Amino acid sequence: MITTAGYELLITFIVLFIIFAIVGFMGRTFRRGDMSQLHEWGLGGRKLGTVLQFFLQGADWFTAYSILAIPSAVFALGAFGFFGVTYQAMVFTFASLFMPRLWKISREKGYITIADYARGEFNSIGLSLSIVVLGIFATLFYIALQVDGLYAILGTTLLESFHILPTSSAFKEYSLVILFIAFLVIAAFSFTSGVRGVSLGAIFKDVLVWTGLLTVIVATLYYTHGFTNLFSGMPSKYLSLPSTEALAFSSSMLGVVFSAYLWPHNITGSWAAQSEDRLLKGYSLTILYAIPLALADVMAIAVYKIPSVHSFVFQLPAASRGLYVIPGLLVSLVPPWLAGLALLGIFVGGLVPAALMAVTVGNMTGRDLARMVKANISAKGQTQVARWAAVIFTLLSLALLQVIPMTYAFQFYLVGAEIILQFLPIVVIHPFFKFIRKEFAIAGLWIGTLVSIFVTLYANHYKVISTTLYHDLYIGFIGLLINIIIVLISLAFPKKS
Amino acid sequence: MGSNGSKRNWIIVGIVTLLIFGVYAWPWYSFVNPTLAGLPFFYWWVIIWYVISSIILYSIVSLRVKGGAS
Questions:
Q1: Predicted ipTM beyond 0.90
Q2: Per-residue pLDDT for A495 more than 80?
């Protein structure tokens, strides 16, 4: 049986999803370019201005997972969970430091992906192939993580409109069908419109998410009568960070800061910028996105203060409860149509980065793998391969999720970020100090990766992976240190030139 | 790099980077008072610096692009 409120929420959700799909397909005609060329499909012809950069970076970096998982961490852990938003300004400061140089090189030499860049700069197919393999592996699990958030949104929507509990078997069936449709839409519009479709979808998503987050903030403050009431009587770990957690807090933040803009899809988004000027302005403005996000994270505490939200969140099993904090605030505190709008915004927030990742994997496959198989492949041929690779990748990641339980997807993601961090010498150091030899670049990348994975397994006692910290130090840094030492050996073998 | 102008601009970029990392990287700001409208210092310090960081980074963009520090 559907309630009036549930009906309103559901209709808003569905109508807005249809609009989202139309907007994505319209990307094809947006600032029209020759879509048979890979840089047109895969980098939007490098024409994105400041505003589109803001929306694309925002949509791409502030995903469904971050909108739901960080409030979840604050709800459960207190101030420590806030690390997931505290690093935002550092992320874009660090990206501003090296990305303009990388952007310039990619533009001058016509590189589309970092694998492409590695092949050209280091004259090494081995390095390029390593980046493709490790990049695609890590990206697959990043998408899987997004789907965790998508399930929470669908869980809320079905619970509110049909009283179907997320733990029921009916929910499993329905959500699979819905996700399949959603991923088909994503695959179809990545195929036709490439990065153009993704960036138009990003504008649409960002507007809904901003509206949703601001609504949550205002409504929560209204019901709790301000911050003083919100924090009163809460345990001290919610008020500020206990000093024993300082190192873990800091190293978890820096692990993200240094790896964030090494993710291949984030590099794709950045290379789509029209100029260095637009790229840097886009970055600096994107930091502002963290303001409503941080305030919404604080609002997670309101679960303990508002009885209707408390009963919504606590009807769910403890393991997944946290992801329902923001959806719970929405359905309990704001009118159903507005809740539907915000929920759809967060839902699309998981789909847009998935689309950009699909385009990125398409770029890597079309450009790098295709040229390895067939050296003289035409520009048109590369684009065709890229488009189909994007579709296959999207469907593959959905299939993978049915095979691998969600808890494992999260652990692969933790390892994924450690692997991505190993790209740092190639992507950040090389553009400025050209001393790295290809043999040491490859060795550093793989040894750094293997060391990180091994230490992660060791730190988790070879059981289920639940942490990437070893004695409060982010394990990716241990791999990176060894990686950098190996790369520095290049200096002992000066280049002949 | 190379010319004196771009060297000076790179130093400015370096200072800005160190400033923003100095603000955030180590949680020395983890205390409750002074609160702002009831929000503990820990939270409002982090949020207010988003605005300041954004303004600083935006304002050095043209200096970097025209001054050869990018």
A1: yes
A2: no
- B18 close to A (CB below 8 A): no
Residue that finishes a domain, picked among A385, A403, A421: A403
Select the highest-mean-pLDDT range: A24-28, A411-415, A459-463, B48-52.
Answer: B48-52
Say how many C-beta atoms besides its own lie within 10 A of residue A326's C-beta. 30
Total structural domains within chain A: 2
CB pairs under 8 A between A and B: 118
Question: For residue A250, which residues of chain B lie inside 8 Å, CB to CB?
Answer: 25-27
Contacts of A257 (CB under 8 A, 6+ apart): A87, A90, A91, A94
- Binned at pLDDT 50, 70 and 90, residue B56 comes out as very high
Interchain proximity B17–A94, CB inside 8 Å:
yes
Q: Mean pLDDT check: name the lowest of A96-110, A370-384, A450-464.
A: A370-384
Mean pLDDT of A59-76: 84
Tell me if chain A has a CB within 8 Å of the CB of B17: yes
Give the integer Cα–Cα distance in Å for A202 and A349.
8
Element of type H or E holding A470: strand A469-470
The per-residue pLDDT for range A301-329, each reduced to its tens digit, is 988 988 888 888 888 887 778 888 899 89
Both tokens assigned to B59: 């304002």
Examine the domain organization and report whether A266 and A156 are in the same domain: yes
pLDDT in tens, A359-379: 888 888 887 777 777 777 787
Same domain, A151 and A194: yes
Using a CB-CB cut-off of 8 Å, the residues of chain B touching A282 are: none
Which residues form the domain of A116? 4-403
- Specify the CATH number for the domain of residue A375: 1.20.1730.10
A73-77, A371-375, A424-428, A472-476: the lowest-pLDDT one:
A371-375
Residues A351 and A232 in one domain: yes
- Contact residues on chain A for B23, CB-CB shorter than 8 A: 89
Rounded mean pLDDT of A260-278? 88
**Is A31 in the same domain as A158?**
yes
**In B, which residues are within 8 Å of A241 by CB distance?**
27, 30, 42
The secondary structure of residue A287, as a DSSP letter, is G
Question: In residues, how long is chain B?
Answer: 70
Residue at a domain's end among A388, A403, A418: A403
pLDDT for residue A497 is more than 70: no
Crossing angle for the helix pair A4-26 and A169-224, to the nearest 10 degrees: 100
| Same domain membership, residue A217 and residue A179 | yes
Confirm if A241 and A323 have CB atoms less than 8 A apart: no
- How far is the alpha carbon of A277 from chain B, nearest alpha carbon, in Å? 6
Same domain, A35 and A166: yes
**In terms of domains, do A435 and A365 share one?**
no
| Pair (A356, A481) in one structural domain | no
Contacts of A7 (CB under 8 A, 6+ apart): A161
The verdict on a CB contact (< 8 Å) between A231 and B38 is: yes
